[in-house]
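Section 5: illustrative case.
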């Protein structure tokens, strides 16, 4: 049994996941909780080295199957070195992207069979599944515009085109619809403040430990 809680932010490009993850982490820390803020691909030194290979270069650099296996190779390291130790000592983990990004980008977007993804997922992630997944949802065009404006240079996935991004948005929403107990879809096409407020309300509703805190 994990002592801590595992919260994941998911969504397409430019949905403001990182900003909202930061805000949530600050609120949880203000309550005196130990919180590990992390991200995928990456989150441990080995996984960050794989991230460089994954997010840079030509869109066609890797096939979707190669990407899937590299994402899970990075994830295995991240789980072993960071996520499981944190949960075991009772810390909260807030992660920017996790397995649903693989299901959406490599599965729904890239065409890797969902059955294969689930086999790999069972082997690598097992029962270290998120307690709560916040899906940041917004129209694809607006998200891509925001991501472009940010211009962080990591644009391999951004460059895959609108149809690809529509498929993965549908993938995230389908997954959320399938597991309504653990998933919340957040309307990310609004200002930062109202989104932060909505997320905090959802976290308080999901975890009795933080209920009643301001
Ligand atoms: P991220 O740094 O979250 O990008 P952004 O902030 O632009 O949304 O993630 C980098 C890219 O990696 C992003 O385009 C999504 C992609 N990705 C996958 O394709 N599969 C995965 O399993 C993960 C975790 C990320």
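Designed sequence:
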């Amino acid at each position: 049994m994990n002592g801590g809680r595992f919260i994941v932010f998911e969504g397409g490009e430019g949905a403001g996941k990182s900003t909202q993850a930061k805000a949530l982490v600050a609120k949880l820390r203000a309550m005196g909780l130990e919180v590990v803020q992390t991200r995928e691909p990456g989150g441990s030194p080995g996984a960050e080295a794989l991230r460089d290979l994954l997010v840079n270069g030509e869109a066609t650099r890797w096939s979707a199957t190669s990407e899937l296996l590299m994402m899970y190779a990075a994830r295995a390291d991240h789980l072993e070195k960071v996520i499981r130790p944190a949960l075991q000592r009772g810390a909260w983990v807030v992660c920017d992207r996790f397995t649903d990004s693989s299901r959406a980008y490599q599965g729904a977007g890239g065409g890797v069979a969902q059955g294969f993804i689930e086999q790999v997922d069972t082997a690598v992630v097992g029962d270290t599944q998120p307690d709560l997944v916040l899906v940041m949802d917004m129209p694809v065009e607006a998200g891509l515009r925001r991501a472009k404006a940010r211009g962080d240079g990591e644009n391999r996935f951004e460059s895959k085109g609108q149809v690809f991004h529509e498929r993965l948005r549908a993938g995230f929403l389908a997954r959320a619809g399938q597991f309504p107990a653990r998933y919340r879809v957040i309307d990310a096409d609004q200002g930062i403040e109202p989104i932060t407020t909505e997320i905090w309300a959802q976290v308080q509703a999901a975890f009795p430990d933080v209920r009643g805190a301001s």
